[in-house]
Design a protein that fits this description.
It is built from six helices and seven strands, in the order ααβαββαββααββ. The chain has 188 residues and is α+β, with helices and mostly antiparallel strands. Helix 4 packs antiparallel against helix 6.
Length: 188
């Protein structure tokens, strides 16, 4: 719905082509799929960008009594990416983590530097996790998991757009379940 985008429109208004409605989501998608969404790259300070996006979600998280914890390991140098695309991906994942975590829980965002020019971002929630048989499907267009479909609103496009943008920037995204609860999305 439009509300979920309005909440972080402020941070993103300077980024070209940010989505704030279902219609825009569909338009972006069609452009991505026919290769008409250009992703010009620039030197980006990852830590600054991640912190900026997290700060946008403090209020919606607080309303659910959810805290967002940021941790980084290693020195993360600047990396060449498309800023608007990175913000869309991060916003989608952090927003999902808040949406699926039960109240009074914590969403963790980890940024780590593996080697020169390889950065790993992990977003962990305390939600119901992803059933094994759905692991392959959650990045598909319009897919909505069985255990969340009735409880939360969504278009089934957020993860598909996120995966498409991550891959267009030369990255990979995967998901796995936590030891006891929740799941973790990892972008490399």
């Amino acid at each position: 719905g439009s509300g979920r985008y309005r909440s972080y429109a402020g941070v993103i208004e300077k980024s070209s082509g940010f989505l704030y409605s279902m219609a825009e989501e569909i338009i972006l998608l069609s452009k991505l799929e026919i290769g008409e969404y250009p992703l010009p790259v620039e030197e980006i300070c990852m830590e600054e960008t991640v912190r900026q996006i997290i700060s946008v979600f403090f209020r919606p998280a607080k309303e659910k009594e959810i805290s967002i914890r940021f941790e980084k390991s290693g020195e993360v140098s600047k990396i060449r990416l498309n800023l608007a695309a990175l913000k869309i991906c991060l916003s989608n994942l952090i927003e999902n983590a808040i949406k699926y975590s039960p109240p009074k829980n914590c969403v963790r965002v980890n940024l780590l530097c593996r080697e020169e020019k390889t950065v790993v971002l992990k977003i962990k929630d305390s939600g119901p996790g992803v059933p094994k048989e759905e692991m392959e499907s959650i990045f598909k267009k319009f897919y909505r998991g069985r255990n969340v479909k009735d409880k939360t609103k969504g278009s089934g496009l957020g993860l598909y757009i996120t995966k498409t943008l991550v891959e267009r920037m030369g990255g990979t995204i995967r998901v796995f379940n936590g030891n006891r609860v929740g799941c973790c999305f990892e972008i490399t």
